[in-house]
Amino acid sequence: MRLARFNVEHAKAGADYKMFRGLPSPGAAAIMVSLILLHDQPHGEHVKGAIVYAMPGVALGAAFLMVSRIPYKRFHAYLVGRQPFGRFVLLMGLLVVFWSFKAWTFMLVVFLYGLSGPVTWVVKQARGKRTAPPTATGTEQPDTRRRHA
After folding, report:
1. What is residue 51's predicted lDDT score, i.e. its pLDDT?
2. How far is CA 95 from CA 38, 57, 91, 118, 146, in A?
3. Which of 6, 28, 91, 136 to pair with 112, CA 20 to 30 A apart?
């Protein structure tokens, strides 16, 4: 379903190539791979057991996000173009941590990407409801303030 919708939506003229609708398939695959890599690390049995029991739920969640209409930024949008210096420092710090704790860092990054769509969507919905002007009463006054250019 995910691939069929992607093909239909991107075949249209004027398709938005900066966003995906639903979690991209490689992102969902990366989430599952991160759990497998984390399971193969030397941990206590309680961590491995928790990962095994979490996998079906995570797979269902990723499947739901793939077929949802929640918008996701393309992953390279976080890296390409002019970025604030703080993002560069964060990326370098992440690389240092990744070098030391590969499985945990990979899992953290892909889970944050997986959650970025729903969190952004919820925040936009909350802001949209809070800042929407009331239009049901019809008592709005025209804006007579001067606009500065």
Report:
1. 92
2. 18, 29, 6, 26, 50
3. 6
**117 φψ region: left (φ > 0), alpha (ψ -120 to 50), beta (else):** alpha
In a domain, 147, yes or no: no
How many residues in the chain? 149
Q: How many angstroms separate the CA atoms of 39 and 52, rounded? A: 8
Residue 137 lies in a domain: no
- Cβ neighbours for 140, distance < 8 A, ≥ 6 positions apart: 133, 134
pTM passes above 0.70: no
DSSP letters of 14-53? T--TTEEES--HHHHHHHHHHHHHHHTSS--HHHHHHHHH
> Average pLDDT for consecutive 10-residue bins of the chain (149 residues)?
68 65 90 93 85 95 91 72 81 86 89 92 84 51 53
| Alpha helices for the chain (secondary structure H) | 2-11, 25-39, 45-67, 85-100, 102-131
**Residue 80 lies in domain:** 2-118
* Residue 103, in any domain of the structure: yes
